[in-house]
Amino acid sequence: MAVVCRNLRAFAQKTSSLRCTPNFLRLYSQSKPAPPKLVTVDVDKAGVATVTLDRPPVNSLNTGLLEELGVAIKDLEANKTRGIILTSSSNSVFSAGLDILEMYEPKKQNLSLFWTTLQNTWLSLYRTSIPTVAAINGHAPAGGCLLALSCEYRVMVGPKFTIGLNETQLGIVAPQWFMICMKDAVGRRQAEMALTAGKMFSTQEALNIGLIDKMVSNKEEAIAEAQKFIAQFAKIPPLARRMTKESIRQEGIKYMEENAIDDLKAFMDLVVQPNIQKGLGMYLEAMKKSK
Ligand SMILES: CCCCC/C=C\C/C=C\C/C=C/C(=O)SCCNC(=O)CCNC(=O)[C@H](O)C(C)(C)COP(=O)(O)OP(=O)(O)OC[C@H]1O[C@@H](n2cnc3c(N)ncnc32)[C@H](O)[C@@H]1OP(=O)(O)O
């Protein structure tokens, strides 16, 4: 027994001295790699942040990405950033929308966290006092379109990508706050037509109805247009800007503040329905087969 204790003591001393050596640190960091970041933030000399969704292959919005995006917005607010440009690391997809795997055969707790994180991150993006622009450098269906719609200005790379709230095509109803965002951008009439048909718009069609504000031919141009949009606010008193944004977005903000719990319940009840689960399974299969 005494021998075992002595050996243990010797081992403990050895490992505690090892703890600070470069070799140990290297071994430790090799065995525990940091998880890859799903959102990256680059702030330029003018104080404008490019926030890049970086979850290959299609930036589907899972809890982790949404959480990181929410934290990034809060950090940028704390640092008094002059503007946020939301874009994607992919060459063909801005975001494929909500991650269907978060909704397929979910654990109740995970599903609830997923939706609550989406609600909170959406509200942070929608109401932030920082000027926001979506530089949409690829397809933006459903939740991807929602993120773009939550920004103040949308520049999209064309002509081959598509954008829209396609929920009815999937047999589901877009939540009320998704609809409010579409109405904000294109007005009630166009929103009704777009949403009831679940239409995915080409870049040119999106420009025609005001779903996007500008069409450009590559990501660099999109970023340059976004910077131009943000630069105009240098001359506008920030308090007046902030209060105006908050006021004009009151319907969406109030909706979420007053209905977050009911909205969560409606989502949770819907997603676990056997027919929805079956539909999600079939949709995932169909996406795999279409490759
Ligand atoms: C959908 C029913 C939800 C029911 C829940 C009820 C209420 C929800 C309320 C809210 C509204 C929902 C909002 C949403 O956002 S739902 C998500 C809607 N999104 C889509 O329909 C887009 C689906 N994707 C595509 O159309 C294409 O992938 C693309 C974006 C055009 C890109 O095409 P590309 O050819 O470049 O890629 P692939 O299709 O080959 O995809 C690569 C890889 O990614 C997987 N994948 C794609 N989209 C998603 C996704 N949204 N979630 C999870 N995974 C996705 C795809 O299966 C491939 O995977 P693989 O393993 O085969 O490599």
From TrEMBL:
<dbReference type="GO" id="GO:0005759">
    <property type="term" value="C:mitochondrial matrix"/>
</dbReference>
<comment type="function">
    <text>Key enzyme of fatty acid beta-oxidation. Able to isomerize both 3-cis (3Z) and 3-trans (3E) double bonds into the 2-trans (2E) form in a range of enoyl-CoA species, with a preference for (3Z)-enoyl-CoAs over (3E)-enoyl-CoAs. The catalytic efficiency of this enzyme is not affected by the fatty acyl chain length.</text>
</comment>
<comment type="pathway">
    <text>Lipid metabolism; fatty acid beta-oxidation.</text>
</comment>
<keyword id="KW-0809">Transit peptide</keyword>
<keyword id="KW-0443">Lipid metabolism</keyword>
<dbReference type="InterPro" id="IPR029045">
    <property type="entry name" value="ClpP/crotonase-like_dom_sf"/>
</dbReference>
<dbReference type="InterPro" id="IPR001753">
    <property type="entry name" value="Enoyl-CoA_hydra/iso"/>
</dbReference>
<protein>
    <recommendedName>
        <fullName>Enoyl-CoA delta isomerase 1, mitochondrial</fullName>
    </recommendedName>
</protein>
<dbReference type="GO" id="GO:0004165">
    <property type="term" value="F:delta(3)-delta(2)-enoyl-CoA isomerase activity"/>
</dbReference>
<keyword id="KW-0007">Acetylation</keyword>
<dbReference type="Pfam" id="PF00378">
    <property type="entry name" value="ECH_1"/>
</dbReference>
<comment type="subunit">
    <text>Homotrimer.</text>
</comment>
<keyword id="KW-0413">Isomerase</keyword>
<keyword id="KW-0496">Mitochondrion</keyword>
<keyword id="KW-0276">Fatty acid metabolism</keyword>
<dbReference type="GO" id="GO:0006635">
    <property type="term" value="P:fatty acid beta-oxidation"/>
</dbReference>
